[in-house]
Amino acid sequence: MTDLTKVWETYERGKGIFRLAPVFVPRRFAQAGKRLRLHPDDYYAYGAARGSIKERWFSSVIPAMNGPLAKPDEGMSYVAVNDDASDKFLFRDAVEALGPVLIGETLHAKYGTWPMYSKFFDYETPLFHHLHLDEASAQLVGRMGKPEAYYFPPQLNNHPGVFPATYFGYDPDTTIEQVRERLLQFESGDNRITELSRAYRIELGTGWYTPPGVVHAPGSYLTYEPQWNSDVNSVHENVVWGEVYPYEFLTENCPEPKKRDIDYILGLMDWEKNVDPHYKKNYFRPPIVCAHSDERHTEKWITYGNEYFGAKELTVQPGQTVVVKDSAAYGTILIQGHGTFGVHDAEAAVMLRFGQMSGDEFFVGEAAAQAGVTIVNRSKWEPMVFLKHFGPNHPQMP
């Protein structure tokens, strides 16, 4: 059990800001993009049977749904007590101990915990066409629904992978009967279901919002993904880039009696959103520059227009000192530059060994966010660039 005194002392010593340890997550499918700034020798740190590391998770109070070989805390964030994180405690325990002091009265009263997390999603090849369940469907298997959003940071995309385009939903002329026919082929051969979809070429520095129930096949750029506290899906595509996925990928989040019920499986889709003829107009998210930006710093909304979470990109120019205020608690990852973040030294990772502490990830409690975080860019040449993820309670989110 976490020592509550240690939690409070760490919170007070950090002036309301926690430094978080890096959390890397393997996946047993697809190929790693190797843009996570992890040492090339460490992508199989969990062992070959677990697959390569393809994700890094931020501000997470939940474990990854990652099969029977995963440890109970896989995907969960830890707060570092000392510089090398040899002394640490679960971020989830900090949220439980501090409650509204850390995340604010609004989130604590409504959710009882920090309700979202974010991650870097890093695949060399395209991912399968899949959807995330809505709240009602997820509750039937003891889980939560999962909306998510994407942003494509230029700083982490030195190469585009092999397929830098993302499929969303189905072409507006597609019928649900055509989708049914392809899903019924899941075990008999390549169902080639993306032939019914539509792909958009990924634009660096922009993003998308993906509601639950919308089928999507993410492209091969590294993606920053704010999302709800869930890891639940249904995979519609059975062969991707030569890799074959078993039937369980389609039905692993269906109640046992429904695993062969094609109508139930089809019902996991929000059909109207999948065939929306104005999908890009409704869900594409170009950045919106905040009014308080000036010659010293620029802040942009990069995830917005939904009821679950938001995200910003903050750029502090070389040699500048700024005080940045927000109305709500948030997690953040520094992706370029070095300096100080509140009382903490801060530097973007260049190449981490697995298990090594970093100086790039933080969680800012509500009081510290509202008072303002002083950020000092120590570089004469490079900007400091932060990505900041919020829950649903930031009043300025567009």
TrEMBL record:
<dbReference type="InterPro" id="IPR011051">
    <property type="entry name" value="RmlC_Cupin_sf"/>
</dbReference>
<dbReference type="InterPro" id="IPR014710">
    <property type="entry name" value="RmlC-like_jellyroll"/>
</dbReference>
<protein>
    <recommendedName>
        <fullName>Mannose-6-phosphate isomerase</fullName>
    </recommendedName>
</protein>
